[in-house]
Amino acid sequence: MTAVQVRAPHAAPESTPPITGPRPSNPPRRKSMVMLLCIAPFLVLIFLFSYFPLFGWVYSLYDYKPALGLSGSEFVGLQWFQMLVSSPTQLAQIGQVLLNTLAISFLGIAASVLPLGFAVMLNEVKAPWFKNAVQTLTTLPNFISWVLVYVIAFSLFSSSGLVNDVLVDSGLVTAPLKFLDSDQHVWLSMAAWSVWKTLGWGAIIYLAAISGIDQSLYESARIDGAGRFQLMRYITVPQLMPTYIVLLLLSIANLLNNGMEQYYVFQNAFNKEHLQVLDLYVYNIGMTGNSLSLATAVGMLKSLVSVALLFAVNGIAKRVRGESIV
Predict the structure, then answer these.
(1) Collapsing DSSP states into helix, strand and coil, what is residue 237?
(2) Helix residue spans in 158-266 (DSSP H)
């Protein structure tokens, strides 16, 4: 008779031997730590140069005197903020400054399509040497300081400049035209100088975006008989729209940030009323008017309004396009 081995129906499973020695590493976690260490220096720089200076907002609560320091200056609370809205003269001045700021900003936004159009047209140039030469010549002005730009403008458009000499010598005008020492069309002239300086630089982003367009789209369109302008209209420009929309949203968020270098060098007694933007106004009342606390209060309000604009534009973009930038 053969013996049959019968296993117990609820036999306990064999226990797993304990793991001895070093535990296995976690590659995803180690990779995350490496990436965090890589971006740590940039986070430190952002904190030092973007967030740490916000401590300076406390100066808006004092009547700050540089000779006495913050501890020796008088605490005045919200006096500077109340003065901004209680004085009719101050309100009128701030209203003109805001008008100048918004007018120049909207002209800049209207001109933001020029780098896109320039990049599309430059991409159609077939001669590489000519394309590279045009791109280089139009990008170089971005690296010229506004002081040097004003020197060029003065040599060309001052009362004794080249343009007026040509106009007077040719008999077209009897007296030199006042291009620089006049407040007529000063917003348009500032926008024109800004476009001349940044056109090539702004087109670089669109040229990079064009290089990333799927070439099979062009090949399919050519097979269907599309011409050059149809390729630009139905493929290149639509493919650039996401990039343009993002840059447009950032421009709208920076409506109050015009910078001050351009307007500081071009300002004079004739055009200062229509040229003083918010950044230049803060500089003038802080450094020229020696009212650092009032300048801090105005700068603080400008920053808060800019942040509000950014979130408003971000919300609009999310509602319209389903995507946001923040």
Answers:
(1) helix
(2) 162-169, 186-211, 215-223, 228-231, 237-253, 261-266
The span from the CA of 226 to the CA of 223, in Å, is 7
Q: Give the separation between CA 123 and CA 8, rounded to whole angstroms.
A: 80
Strands (E), the chain: 62-63, 74-75
- Dist CA 191 CA 175 (whole Å): 26
Q: Tokens at residue 72, please?
A: 């020796």
Tens-digit pLDDT profile for residues 236-260: 999 999 889 888 888 887 888 888 8
Q: Give the helix, strand, coil percentages of the chain, each rounded to 5.
A: 70, 0, 30
Q: Name the residue with higher pLDDT: 219 or 182.
A: 219
Give the tens place of pLDDT for each residue, 277-291: 988 998 988 888 888
Other C-beta atoms lying within 10 Å of the C-beta of residue 258: 21
pLDDT by residue (tens digit) across 3-54? 444 444 444 455 555 555 556 566 777 888 888 889 999 999 999 998 898 8
Q: How far apart are CA 85 and CA 193, in angstroms?
A: 34
Residue 298's nearest CA partner among 67, 55, 80 is 80
Angle (CA) 228 233 234, round 5°: 100
Query: Rounded to whole angstroms, how far apart are CA atoms 113 and 248?
Result: 9
- Cα–Cα distance for residue pair 162/1, rounded to 1 Å: 124
Higher pLDDT, 63 or 316: 63
**Residue for token pair 């005045």:** 76
Q: What is the dihedral of CA 145, 146, 151, 156, to 10 degrees?
A: 120
Q: What 3-state class would DSSP assign to 255?
A: coil
Single-letter code of the amino acid located at 59: Y
